[in-house]
Amino acid sequence: MGVQSYEVRICNSCGLRYPLTHGHSFGIRCPHCLGETRIVLEKKINEEIGTREKETPNTGSKLNVLVDNVRSAWNVGSILRSADGFGFTHAYLCGITPTPEEEAVQKTSLGSEDNVTWSYHKDAVKLVKGLKKEGRKILTLEADEKAISIQSIRKSDSENVVLIVGNEITGVDPGLLDTSDMIMYIPMYGKKRSFNVATAFGVAANHLSRLTIS
Questions:
Q1: In terms of pTM, does the model score above 0.70?
Q2: Where are the domains of the chain?
Q3: Contact status, residue 150 vs residue 142, Cβ threshold 8 Å
Q4: Which has the least CB within 10 A, 31, 66, 133, 159?
């Protein structure tokens, strides 16, 4: 069971205000100056989160994600959490991608692996060839010369989809790009030319999810 309640504390010395969940390593000492703190608010998390009604469920969307050789357990956990939120039903974790069996993944997935089924596969290229034979549409998120804007994706492109994201440094395996039905990029308007992989997945997942329920 997850965290059910928390306190908001203020440091009597430096004035830092911060939340403290039961059993957190911060303790009641200020994490900034180690001064004494006081409780200003106590709250049951379920009062605001656990009892909220769900939005329109993404039933029958058949959206899946394939995470290939993503090194960071934090990123994997974040992807699983977004996958759950946007109605994805399964996650294929491939190569060196850590799985929810690792505690580091669980710290950011926050139980999402209980809602999004997952499986581990050593070779993503071999897996995708099999998925295509089953009729899955393979959409890959990558800044490739063949990529089209994600804004060009339409409802007909979002059915029975496996969305691929790849390594934080080297990107998506060329073998996966070659077998993709469509390669997409996310338009960017700042100086940086790429998003963190978990952030990029969240943007793409939101777009595909909206298409499937529109």
A1: yes
A2: 5-47, 64-213
A3: no
A4: 133
Tokens read off for 64: 């899946």
Residue 184 near residue 147 (C-beta atoms within 8 A) = yes
Residue 76: φ, ψ to 5° = -65, -45
Whole-angstrom Cα distance, residue 80 to residue 198? 9
- Tell me which fold the domain 64-213 belongs to: Alpha/beta knot (3.40.1280)
What is the residue whose two structure tokens read 């790429």?
194
Ramachandran region of residue 62, left (φ > 0), alpha (ψ -120 to 50) or beta? left
So what's the pLDDT on residue 194?
77
pLDDT mean values, one per 10 residues, the chain (214 residues)? 73 91 71 90 62 43 91 97 96 96 94 94 95 95 92 84 94 95 91 86 94 76
- Neighbouring C-beta atoms of residue 76, cutoff 10 Å: 27
